[in-house]
């Protein structure tokens, strides 16, 4: 009997081993992967998968407090699906308008915002973002591409109306406490000759004595504030600062503005305090009144316009979504919204 060549025997053994292995490979991992990355919805040309949903849950929890309540319907699960659908709608229109947000565009936006705040250090900017939005910087950064697209679409697709004079007046009347007061005050400012404890203590005691005498005779304070030792830039006017809104004063003298707001009331003296330049100060309030509308008109107009921008954009998203082909496959969402045909177009009201 003729023996087979050795290479043929090896081929038979290898082939048999391959067949054996292929027949015993479990099929569950593939099905498991498909389940993990199942398509939950199709929004125009974009699909939303289970993996998108898992990533979206944490983003939605961080950002949902910025959304209006009427956009929060159903369970958390359905709210996240709606959130992802809305984002997909915005992405689709941005693509149609050739709005591209790449890494360079994001870097340019960060630089622009840093310059607007007068910040040159990135770490300081990160702290500012966290304080301003009460968000981790990474969460804010992940959402920045969407905010850039939103800003572009507001210019191209949305035309929010300017606030009317009646709206400005109404907001001012309802929010006088937020607008705050403006003060007419006289200030006395001394700088220590050195940083010793003795010098600091001497100045504090001297100003305390001036305050005590002025409580008995306010004209004495005016006399001292007009003297050559007063370092106030208003010394030639007897240290008198004419009516200034606290929010304006806060830009240049935040400590003094805070002290005035705490003291309040015409004819009152502050306690001795140190300002932002480590100088010892004393202020006397000669007048206090609500900040007039003309002084805050532009600020109110800007605030109301930003509100209108947000409202107009939300309305535009809703309208655009209604005109977008949307197919829902997610069983939880289908059940909550009573969708009879899983493959029918669905547009949330």
Structure description:
The protein has 349 residues and is α+β, with helices and mostly antiparallel strands. Helix content is 58%, strand content 12%. A 4-stranded antiparallel beta sheet has the order 4-3-6-5. It has a 3-stranded antiparallel beta sheet with strand order 2-1-7. Strand 5 and strand 6 form a beta hairpin. The N and C termini lie far apart (83 Å).
CATH classification, class level of the domain at 39-160 and 326-336: Mainly Alpha
The total of beta strands comes to 7
Which regions have little confidence, pLDDT < 50, spanning 5+ residues? 1-34
Estimate the global geometry from the Cα principal axes.
elongated
Q: Order of strands side by side in the largest beta sheet?
A: 4-3-6-5
Q: Give the % helix.
A: 55-70%
Structural class: alpha+beta
How confident is the prediction overall: mean pLDDT?
Answer: 87
Here the CATH topology of the domain at 39-160 and 326-336 equals Triger factor/SurA peptide-binding fold
- Nearest-angstrom radius of gyration? 34 Å
Distance between the termini: 83 Å
Q: Could you state the order of secondary-structure elements as H and E?
A: HHEEHHHHHHHEHHEHHEEHEH
The biggest beta sheet, please?
4 strands, antiparallel
CATH architecture assignment name of the domain at 39-160 and 326-336: Orthogonal Bundle
Give the amount of beta strand, in percent: 5-15%
Domain PpiC: 163-297
Protein name: PpiC domain-containing protein
GO molecular function: peptidyl-prolyl cis-trans isomerase activity
Keywords: Signal
